UniProtKB/TrEMBL annotation:
Residues 1-10 have a biased composition (Basic and acidic residues). It holds the Pfam family RhoGEF. Residues 86-277 form the DH domain. This is (African queen) hypothetical protein.
């Protein structure tokens, strides 16, 4: 898959989030004028972003599929049996929701990221670190575009060329690549909670608030907030298995049912593995946070050699390898609470 080179935020050492920036009325007006220019001339293209290298027809089919009416009217679905009609309705839902989801990813990259980087190029919004706000969302967009090209396009192209119902079996080869294509999702979903928190922390920043309000007002955002966009990758990833299971419910052809079950199992396995990675990362962060609360024993050591040994081995390192365990094994925080004990019958102390 084509690698994606993204421009990092121009502010690598932002000020503490949540603090109102020293931005006066004149600076606010200047920011608003720049955003007005974006409304008139368009949002500048995100520098350094290379969109997925897929055929132009894939984008044309994406545009077609993003219109529910086009999907519903290209074929007379009343000609089908009630069972097959229900099956095709779920397939149409799978296609339309995928196209709609990709449009949302494009809105993040083209509107939110494009505007943020363009503003930073003009000396605005410098307190915001875009890597902490968006992670690798451009890679997620490209992954979904590749999935669209390899999985959805063959089925849509066949149906439109032959004026026939959708042949779900034509998605099989694309879904065989699902795990490899969706690799960028793992990093994004590991970072997701941090992105949401970073967005929340910066709500009091006046420049950031103006920027967000402008983004939310854009037609591409369809009145959705940034938080709504940031959680969509996880929502979509879990949706594949649910929709495929509904298609399986209406499928009675043994060969097609077998192919669909393989597709569903593939998506479920990827979701399970990503969830495991997210949980493991959360556990590592808990252990790191716990270690920061531990104080080293403060003692006077007169022997120089003993002091060297103490400095080398006397500090508790909860991330160090464990005896008789594999390198991949990590410590897990199973319980955390205050320790209470009594110095006397009346006095209780808490640690």
């Amino acid at each position: 898959m084509k690698s994606l080179i993204r421009e990092r935020s121009r502010s690598q050492s932002p000020a503490k989030p949540g603090v109102i920036s020293p931005c006066g009325e004149a600076a606010h007006n200047e920011l608003s004028n720049i955003l007005a220019d974006f409304n008139r001339d368009g949002v500048p293209v995100l520098q350094g972003f290379d969109i997925a290298d897929i055929p132009e027809e894939a984008f044309a089919y994406l545009q077609w599929a993003s219109k529910q009416q086009a999907i519903d009217e290209f074929y007379d679905w009343k000609l089908l049996t009630p069972e097959e009609g229900s099956r095709q309705a779920v397939i149409r839902e799978l296609i339309f929701t995928e196209a709609d989801y990709i449009k949302h990813l494009m809105a993040i990259v083209e509107v939110f990221m494009g505007a943020a980087h363009a503003l930073q190029a003009k000396g605005k919004l410098l307190r915001i670190d875009t890597s902490m706000l968006f992670s690798n969302i451009p890679d997620v967009l490209n992954a979904s575009l590749y999935l669209w090209n390899y999985t959805f396009v063959p089925m849509i192209k066949d149906a439109l060329m032959n004026s026939s119902p959708f042949n779900i079996d034509l998605m099989r080869e694309g879904f065989a690549l699902f795990k490899d294509i969706m690799l960028p999702y793992e990093k994004y979903l590991i970072d997701q909670n941090k992105l949401l928190e970073y967005n929340r922390q910066n709500q009091k920043d006046s420049e950031y608030s103006i920027y967000l309000s402008w983004c939310h007002s854009r037609r591409e955002c369809n009145r959705l907030q940034l938080n709504d966009f940031l959680v969509k990758p996880m929502q979509r990833l879990t949706k594949y298995g649910l929709l495929l299971n509904r298609i399986i419910h209406y499928t009675h052809n043994e060969t097609e049912e077998k192919s669909l079950k393989i597709m569903e199992q593939t998506t479920s396995t990827v979701v399970t593995e990503i969830n495991r990675s997210v949980r493991q990362n959360e556990e590592v962060e808990k252990v790191i946070a716990l270690q920061k609360t531990l104080e080293n024993l403060d003692c006077e050591i007169k022997d120089e050699e003993v002091e060297k040994l103490y400095n080398a081995y006397g500090k508790l390192n909860l991330s160090a390898p464990m005896l008789y365990c594999l390198p991949a094994h990590r410590r897990t925080l199973t319980h955390q609470a205050d320790l209470r004990f009594r110095d006397s019958a009346k006095e209780a102390r808490t640690i």
